[in-house]
Amino acid sequence: MAYKPKAPATLSAINVIPMADIMLVLLIIFMVVTPMLQKFVSVEMAAVDNPSDMKDADKDDAIVVAVMRDGKTYIGKTQVAKDQITQQIRDQITGRLDKTVFVRSDGRAHYGDVVGVVDEVRAAGVDQLGLLTEKTKEKGGAPPPPPTGGGN
Asked: Which residue of 89, 91, 141, 149 is surrounded by the most CB atoms within 10 Å?
């Protein structure tokens, strides 16, 4: 009689620990890479109740000028001096059919800085100018009902 070893019992549960490890690594990779995918500098834009949709501002070839709260200006991700904005914009819109420029300004930027940038952009021969804003966030739904007057 020959010796026949017994096979161990099969385990019917799925081992999910390696999958969880892979998912955590992918999450970390996406968290690191996502900020690098932004095309423009980050600006806390002014909030308004009913903004207009400007889908062209998300295009890859859109010209976006950002005005920071400290007065610095950027075209895309490149910092530009205010006296060079007109020339930079003029160079970028040369030969384009759509001569639209979008301005993203910080909600706490000085009004004079924003108006100065708009004037510089207009001096470059821009046909259309869009001011980008964010929609105001709603606070928790409907307001509470008024108190009932139960007293005399």
From this structure: 89
